[in-house]
Amino acid sequence: ARGLERLLIEIQSKSSIPKLMGIEGSGAKIYFAGFSKMMRGEFDFKGRKKRPASDPVNALLSFGYTLLFNEISSFLDGIGFDPYIGFFHRVDYGRPSLAADLIEEFRAPAIDRLTLMLVNNRIFTSKDFSPHPKSGSIYLKREEMRRYLEEYEIYISYEFDHPEKGEKSNLRKCFREQIYKLAQTIMEEKDYLPFHLERK
């Protein structure tokens, strides 16, 4: 926690995107080191590895982030944004950079928490994964993907008290609401407030 607090202070003196990206990378290492300590069960998670996924936990994270990314991209497109023009992530051919920006505030409350629940409750075990025959990457077996999608749908549809509004909401509604908030931020030229869940 102290490492992350130090980085939050350091952010204030950084004005360029490359420097901010460097701080983001340092923060991710600290975060996932703590994330691994919250896990119970059979999986050995030594840190985030995107491509290729080197273990079942990374495979679950990557699959979940892909679903989340696609949802955010779809909402952006439906509301009228160009998802390929972002603020923080650089514009790159074929990559919806704005979706890459907005997914960041939902990784932890959506996919990371879901992954912990699936692992700690042993909803998925080592038998549900297999290595790719060529790359050796670890993947969730095709027949288990449907079960993951069911768990994902239940999780993001689960109702909770919205931290700002004080009314019932769910994560999918929050995805949409944050995009509307971004539109309002741009039109009214005011600061953007990211989504967060209150710690219980």
UniProtKB/TrEMBL annotation:
Any Gene Ontology biological process? maintenance of CRISPR repeat elements
Q: Which UniProt keywords apply?
A: Antiviral defense, DNA-binding, Endonuclease, Hydrolase, Magnesium, Manganese, Metal-binding, Nuclease
Task: Note whether DNA-binding occurs among the keywords.
Answer: yes
Give a single Pfam family match.
Cas_Cas1
Q: Does the keyword Magnesium apply?
A: yes
The record's section on InterPro entries has: Cas1 (IPR050646), CRISPR-assoc_Cas1 (IPR002729), CRISPR-assoc_Cas1_C (IPR042206)
GO MF assignments: DNA binding; endonuclease activity; hydrolase activity; metal ion binding
Question: What name appears for this protein in its UniProt entry?
Answer: CRISPR-associated endonuclease Cas1
Q: What is the lineage of its organism?
A: unclassified sequences, metagenomes, ecological metagenomes
